[in-house]
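Budget justification aside, the reviewers requested a transparent look at the raw inputs and outputs of the sequence design task funded under Objective 1. We therefore reproduce one unedited record. The lines immediately below are the structure tokens for a 108-residue chain.
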């Protein structure tokens, strides 16, 4: 994915991971001076026949997560759309990816 250097007001600092529909980036909020995670969907990469439903689902994901307040759920700071991209700006939690924990569990 060709990732922009700035998404909304956030500076992109690196790649954290990629999934089937989205890319997760490390970002920096220059206003609040904090690191965050940015989940980014490139609308041009979605299949035309399922694009509207996928984008609607992505927005609902942001809305649902924003309503949750729990120590084990990341905070959602913002949902936005900019050009060919939709994004969710959220709390960044440092640590190992979930796959690392899952593979450790399988070895036990």
């Amino acid at each position: 994915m060709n990732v922009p250097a700035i998404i909304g007001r956030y500076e992109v600092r690196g790649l954290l991971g990629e999934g089937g529909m989205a890319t997760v980036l490390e970002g920096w909020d220059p206003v609040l001076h904090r690191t965050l995670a940015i989940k980014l969907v490139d609308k041009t990469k979605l299949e035309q026949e399922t694009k509207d439903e996928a984008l609607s689902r992505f927005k609902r994901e942001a809305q649902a997560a924003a309503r949750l307040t729990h120590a084990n759920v990341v905070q959602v700071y913002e949902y936005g759309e900019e050009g060919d991209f939709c994004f969710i700006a959220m709390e960044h939690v440092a640590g190992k990816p979930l796959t690392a924990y899952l593979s450790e569990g399988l070895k036990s």
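Residues 6-107 form a domain with the Phosphorylase Kinase; domain 1 fold (CATH 3.30.200.20). The two ends are 36 Å apart (CA to CA). Computational costs for records of this kind are itemized in the attached budget.
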